[in-house]
Amino acid sequence: MNDPLHGTSLRGSPSGHMQMAPAATWPAVTENVENHVLSHGELKGRQDLPLYCNPLVIFVLNWMLMLVSLSFQITYVTYPNMGMPLLLAGLSLGSFLFGYLVSRTLLHRWPTRTQSLHYTLDVTRLWQASLLCCGAAVLIIVFNWVLSGPPPAIGDPSTYLTYGRFKQVLFPLLVVITVNSLLDSTRWRKVLFAMFGIAGMALYITRGLLMVSLLQMLFVFSLKTRMSKKKIYTIAVCCLALAVVAITLIGNARTAQGVFLEYLQIRHKYSDWPMAYLWLTSYISIPFSNLCWLFAKGNFHGPTLSFLYPLLPSFLTPPDPHASIHDDLTIIDGASTYLAGYVLDFSYLGVYLANMVLGIGCGWLMERALPKSILVAGLFLTCLTFIFFSDMFSPLSTVLQFAIQAAVQRKCFQWGGEPAESRVPG
C-alpha cells in the first residue's frame, strides 16, 4: 500500500512528482501558505474504481457472508433455523435498494456541474494536521497512564475494554493519523505517522481499531491510486490475508484458545480447526445469530431512543434499557450487527428504516462523494464493510472522525484547473 502520489502525472513539473528540498522534510509551521509544499495528481473516474469501492456490492456481500457463515452452525447456540435469517436478509436488501435507487434518481434530477478530477494536495497542511492530532493523542495517553497505570499492552491485558478515559476522542485521532499518513509525500513522515498511530492502537490492544485502520487505508489508497485494477485487486487480497493473520495473532495474544472456545460456545467438532478460520467465521456468524435471537426472544415495548446513546459521551450515557436481554445465554458477546439498536427500539420497522436510510446514504456517496471525497468516502465504506458486526456509523468516535476528515479534506485539497508546479519553502 505504499503508493505515494508519484504514480500520477504532472504537468509543468520537470521532476515528474514534486520538487522538494531535503530541508523541507519538516518545514516551519509558521510559514506562509504561498510556500507550502504542494502535490498534484488526478483521480480515476467512478466507473474505473474497483468493485469493492461500490457500496451496493459491499452491502450485498455482507449479507451473503452472514447467511453463509450462519449456515455452518459454528456454535452450540447459533440460531438453528434459516427462516428468520432469510426474512431479515430480504427485508434489508429490499429497503436498502429502495433508498439507494430513490436517492440516486433524485440526485440525477439535480446534477452538479462537472468538476475536474485534478487535485492539488497541500502536503504542509496535511502533516501539520497530523502533528496536531499526534499531540492531542499523546496528551490523552499520558493522562491515562498517570491516572490508571500503563496501557493494557504493557500492564494488564485483561483490562483492554475498561482501561482509560477519553477513548472516544483518542481512537479516532489514532485512526486519522494512520490513514492520512498514506497521503504524505515524504517517506519518512509517512512511516513515522503510520507507526505512531499503529503503536497507539497496539498499546490499547484494539484489534478492531487496527482492522478499521487497515481497511480504511485500503479504500483511500484504491480511490487515490492510478494503478491498474489487477494490481489493486492483488493488494486488496494481500490486505485481507494480513487482516486475517492480525486478527488471529492479536486474538490469541489476549484470549487463550480454551477460553475462546468456551466463551463463544464453539462446537466440539470445530475445536481443532485453525484459529484463523474460527475467529473469522465466528465474528461474522455470531452477531447475525444474536440478531435473530433478539427477534425470537425480545419483548418490544416501544421505542426508548437507546439507538441514539452511542452519540453521547461515555460519561453521559444512560443505562441501557435493553441490557437484560444480553443475559440470555444464546446472546454471545453483545454484538448483534448494525441493526441491533434499531431492532430493539422499533422491531421490524427498525430494520426497514435503518436500511432505507443507509441506502439513501450510499446513493449520495455514489452520486456526490465518489471519487473526490476520498477521506470521507474511505471512512464511509469502512463503516459499511463492518455492518456484519455492529453499527459503526452512529458512535461519537465515528462522528468525530468524519468531522476531522471532512476538515482535512476541505483544507488540504483543491480541485480543478491544470496542475501547477509544486512550491517549496525558500
Explained architecture:
The protein is mainly alpha-helical. The chain has one domain. 55% of the residues lie in helices and 3% in strands. It has a three-stranded antiparallel beta sheet. α2 runs parallel beside α11 and α6 runs antiparallel to α7. The longest helix is centred in the first third of the chain and has 27 residues. The two termini are 32 Å apart. The relative contact order is 0.18.
Give me the number of helical elements: 13
Radius of gyration: 23 Å
What would you call the shape? Answer: globular
Report helical residue fraction: 40-55%
Q: Indicate the low-confidence ranges by residue numbers.
A: 1-31, 419-426
Strand order of the largest sheet: 1-2-3
The SS-based structural class is mainly alpha
Total of domains: 1
Mean pLDDT comes to 85
Protein name: O-antigen ligase
Keywords: Ligase, Membrane, Transmembrane, Transmembrane helix
Organism: Telmatobacter sp. DSM 110680
GO molecular function: ligase activity
Keyword list:
mainly alpha; 55% helix; membrane; O-antigen ligase; transmembrane helix; ligase activity; 426 residues; 13 helices; single chain; disordered C terminus; three-stranded antiparallel beta sheet; globular; ligase
Would you kindly provide a brief summary of this structure?
The protein is mainly alpha-helical and about 425 residues long. Helices cover about 55% and strands about 5% of the residues. Strands 1-2-3 form a three-stranded antiparallel sheet.
